[in-house]
Design a protein that fits this description.
The complex is a heterodimer of chains A (549) and B (373). Chain A has 549 residues and is an alpha+beta fold. Chain A has 20 helices and 14 strands. The radius of gyration of chain A is 35 Å and the shape is elongated. Chain B has 373 residues and is α+β, with helices and mostly antiparallel strands. In chain B, the strands form three sheets. In chain B, strands 1, 6, 7, 8, 11 and 12 form a six-stranded mixed beta sheet that branches. Chain B has a four-stranded antiparallel beta sheet with strand order 2-3-4-5, with no helix packed on it. A four-stranded antiparallel beta sheet of chain B has the order 10-9-13-14. Classes of the chains: A alpha+beta (549), B alpha+beta (373).
């Protein structure tokens, strides 16, 4: 009956069959899906266990060594990358918050990766919205510092695994410090310290809220934003992003509404920076050599070590000297050289070391390495016994300006010789690793020193009136040299008082017979070299003692 | 629109005897057939609850599936049958046998009905048959006999078929449906409300973020740059300007290495302050280049970086570029890029020479000054 009717029927239509078996199909799908998830989770756990945190790669460990003058002004740096590490305690809290607001708002709470940010980034790139990265700060740090910069899916996965592992094994502060010290900010600067200097000319701890927000905004596309300040379009784009960062900071409570209202878009340094008269390399050369020597390492190690070398130099005085010496020009075919050395008597700190006008043309420092014929400059010492290390000086025909200046400084310090030094102290990661102590010894009897001083005053035949200075002790002015009259070969002009010993040496050379050699030459006579040397010395002396020209 | 339950009542009424018979066969065709009515009642409550969603062209299939599933669900707890031919069969085997030999379904249909694979259905059918003696024809006869007995019993029971109160079933069915609806609504609410709140938060949050896009950019703002001490800036061709901590330096082809200190007398007199040196002040220094004048100057005593430096030469207003040292020292140097002709400068001396005005971020004048020679 019924059965025959059924069995004679055709196959059940597909639509009906699907409807009837829908539940079963769905169930199977769900199970398959769950299985897949479980497999993936297992794979992820296994991969996580197998992944180790790699060591930072060498470029991100290398730091450059920075040289600063006696007031802390930036002289220059040595090293392959412009990067210096700062502890997080030196980074103002609002700068940290600005970077977090700009790059990864959930940084303090997420687990190293942020699925939400990732989804948002994917969505944005699919819908063609504003370009945004889905990487957390932890991931970026892993990418920048620990992995090679290859771009592939497997590397992305590895990066995420390491990020999670890093997040579980290190504190957020450690990660943030690592990130801030390695991330590229443009203008060649890796890390916040170099960025603060290259964008604003300040140390990290001196950054203001606006400057911190601007740096945080730059991290997004550093190669584009590094033109900030010079390119109006870039500046406008950066400004919009800067406002956005500040708004985010206000929303999260990092800064108050008042701070937000007061924030003014910061001014930037020039990029590339303006020239600085090619003087600094001379100072850095001398200081780097001395610093490496004091630390017992090679100059190469020093350059990669991330030290901050505090020098004794007075940058303003050095610059002023450069400008003053510029006016003394040689005649045709003759190159005129000037070397200026200023030493603090009794201490040995070299305040000024001018040994050439342009490092690019003449990397040799005349003040340190140049042998300049002494002539009558050594005469005051002739009759008095000099102790070590100046014993041999009176017999030296051509001492270096630095050597002679240190002898004059000895006279100014009543016979106490102080070894000239250019490095006051060296710090690294905020800790002091070297500190200079004046190395003094008696090289001249006190009475003899007085006599030498008197002789120098007597021998001075210049027509320059002494500059009346109320606070300072009477100064000794002394000009000597080799050759006389109109055939002067060298001129030494010196001014001394107990606070400073300043020596200027003028000499000339001309191209030698063989290629790349030079031969001493006579000083040009117009204007008279003794006069110009004395004038220059006096001008520099005024700059050094009063701070104005 | 007709009440959708009308056709349920009609359907239930029409199919009840057959359902009871099937239920009776499923439960082993022994004992009182009335026991099967309980199974049917439960099945019908479930069917009634989801009656609307049952495809009308396939009602039999779904009702049958409900019945078998309800039976299998109950059979889990059931002890084995006391006697009869089907005594040794399992509940599943019995379900397959009844569907195959009584209801006349094909194995493929049974597979769909039970959600098993066709192979599982086939093997259970074979084993079940083997347990019952291996004769399909006899089994079919047996089922027919039992069915007849049940039908006879039902007819005897009168108009109200076999004690399944359809009104009560419908009521229970509706109640079950309502309960299911409530549960579904509650689950949906639990899922959607947090999502909605989150989305609303995002929209509101996004709204505020959008609302404060970059403020009005002041077009007349002075370009301001930070320089390091001694860093030479080529202001215009041939002119270098640089700052040291004590003042302004500049070099022109005509006059190299000029200096104006922060505390210079000429400067102080220009700013007309005398003793009170911290008062904001500004000055102008014109320099003769080959064919035009270069204007630059100094400002000082400000509490913050200036927003705008404006030079006025004979009604002609120019915006100066500002250079300052790092750390907002409150003083700095300004210069103009545009050359100024000799005639323009001379004309301006009618009303006191070029003047410079320094504005702060709020647009307020903070310092004013003129040429100091």
């Amino acid at each position: 009956m019924r059965r025959t009717a059924r069995s004679s029927g055709l196959r059940i239509p597909l639509r009906l069959r699907l409807r009837r078996t829908r539940g079963r199909l769905l169930r199977r799908l769900v199970i398959a899906f769950l299985l897949l998830i479980v497999t993936l989770c297992t794979a992820a756990v296994v991969a996580y266990r197998l992944t180790g945190i790699p060591d930072p790669h060498p470029e991100t460990v290398t730091q450059s060594t920075v040289f600063v003058d006696d007031k802390g002004s930036y002289l220059g740096r040595r090293g392959p990358v412009d990067r210096q590490e700062v502890p997080l305690s030196q980074v103002p809290r609002y700068v940290q918050d600005a970077v977090i607001a700009a790059e990864n708002r959930t940084f303090r709470t997420d687990d190293g990766v942020s699925p939400r940010a990732l989804a948002r980034a994917v969505l944005a790139s699919l819908t063609g919205g504003e370009r945004q990265g889905g990487s957390t700060i932890t991931q970026q740090y892993v990418k920048n510092a620990l992995l090679s910069p290859e771009q592939s899916l497997s590397r992305k996965a590895r990066e995420a695994l390491i990020a999670i592992k890093l997040d579980r094994t290190r504190s957020k502060d450690e990660i943030l410090a690592g990130y801030l010290n390695t991330v590229y900010f443009g203008r060649g600067s890796a890390g916040i310290e170099a960025a603060a200097r290259n964008y604003f000319g300040v140390d990290t701890r001196e950054l203001t809220v606006s400057q911190g927000a601007a740096l945080a905004a730059i991290v997004n596309i550093p190669s584009y934003y590094e033109k900030a300040g010079s390119d109006p379009k870039v500046t406008a784009t950066l400004r919009a992003r800067w406002e956005w960062v500040l708004d985010a900071m206000t929303a999260s409570g990092s800064i108050t509404a008042k701070q937000r209202a007061e924030a003014a878009f910061p001014a930037f340094r020039f990029y590339p920076p303006g020239a600085t008269e090619g003087q600094r390399q001379y100072m850095i050369d001398v200081a780097a050599q001395e610093a490496a020597d004091r630390l017992g390492i090679t100059e190469d190690q020093l350059a990669r070590g991330g030290y901050t070398v505090h020098t004794t130099f007075d940058l303003a005085l050095q610059d002023a000297t450069t400008e003053a010496v510029k006016d003394i020009k040689g005649s045709k075919g003759i190159t005129l050289h000037a070397a200026v050395v200023a030493i603090v008597p009794g201490d040995g700190a070299v305040r000024l070391l001018y040994g050439g006008s342009d490092y690019a043309r003449q990397p040799f420092n005349d003040a340190v390495g140049g042998a300049v014929e002494a002539g009558t400059a050594l005469d005051p010492f002739a009759k008095f016994p000099l102790g070590a290390p100046l014993t041999a000086l009176p017999k030296t025909a051509a001492p270096t300006p630095l050597k002679l200046a240190s002898a004059y400084a000895t006279v100014a310090a009543n016979g106490m010789y102080a070894a000239p030094y250019t490095v006051t102290r060296i710090t690294r990661d905020g800790r002091q690793v070297y500190s200079a102590h004046p190395d003094t010894r008696r090289a001249l009897d006190e009475k003899d020193a007085f006599m030498v001083n008197a002789m120098m005053s007597k021998m001075y035949v210049g027509a320059l009136p002494a500059v009346p200075t109320a606070q300072r002790a009477p100064q000794t002015v002394f000009t000597a040299g080799a050759g006389g009259g109109i055939t002067r070969r060298t001129v030494w002009s010196t001014r001394l008082d107990p606070q400073l010993a300043l020596t200027t040496a003028l000499f000339a050379d001309r191209p030698g017979k063989k290629k790349n050699t030079t031969a001493p030459a006579q000083l040009p006579n117009d204007p008279p070299p003794t006069q110009s040397a004395a004038e220059t010395t006096e001008q520099i002396w005024r700059l050094a003692t009063t701070g104005t020209g | 629109m007709p009440d959708p339950h009308d056709d349920f009542t009609a359907y239930a009424h029409a199919h009840l005897p057959r359902l009871v018979t099937t239920a009776h066969l499923l439960s082993g065709a022994t004992g009182d057939p009335r026991e099967a009515t309980e199974l049917v009642r439960r099945t019908l409550v479930g069917v009634c609850a989801r009656w609307r969603r049952i495809p009308r062209d396939d009602v039999d299939f779904y009702v049958r599936r409900s019945l078998v599933k309800e039976f299998l669900r109950g059979a889990r707890r059931q002890r084995s049958l006391p006697d009869g031919v089907l005594k040794d069969t399992s509940a599943r085997q019995r379900a397959v046998l009844v569907m195959l030999h009584r209801e006349g379904l094909r194995e493929a249909e049974i597979a769909q009905l039970l959600g098993w694979s066709a192979g599982a259905v086939g093997s259970r059918a074979r084993r079940g048959l083997a347990v019952c003696g291996g004769d399909a024809g006899r089994l079919r006869e047996l089922f027919a006999e039992a069915a007849q007995a049940v039908e006879a019993a039902q007819v005897g029971a009168g108009v109200v078929p076999f004690g399944v109160p359809l009104d009560a079933v419908e009521q229970r069915g509706r109640a079950l449906r309502r309960r299911r609806r409530v549960v579904v609504a509650a689950v949906c609410a639990l899922l959607l409300v947090p999502a909605g709140v989150f989305a609303a938060g995002r929209i509101v949050g996004g709204g505020t973020a959008d609302g404060s896009v970059a403020g009005v950019v002041d077009v007349a703002r002075s370009p301001i740059r930070i320089v390091a001490p001694g860093e030479r800036v080529a202001a215009v061709p041939g002119v270098q300007v640089w700052l040291t901590s004590d003042g302004k330096h500049w070099s022109t082809p005509q006059r190299p290495n000029q200096f104006l200190g922060l505390t210079d007398d000429s400067y102080a007199s220009a700013s007309k302050v005398g003793a009170e040196s911290e008062k904001p002040a500004a000055s102008v220094q014109p320099d003769w280049l080959n064919s035009s004048y270069f204007l630059s100057g100094l400002y000082r005593g400000l509490s913050a970086d200036p927003a705008r430096v404006e030079v006025t030469v004979d009604e002609n207003k120019m915006t100066g570029t500002v250079l300052t040292l790092a750390g907002s020292p409150g003083w700095g140097v300004w210069y103009t890029r545009a050359p100024l002709s000799s005639a323009e400068l001379k004309a301006s001396y009618g009303d006191g020479g070029p003047t410079v005005t320094v504005y702060d971020a709020a647009g307020k004048v903070v310092a004013r000054g003129g040429a100091d020679w």
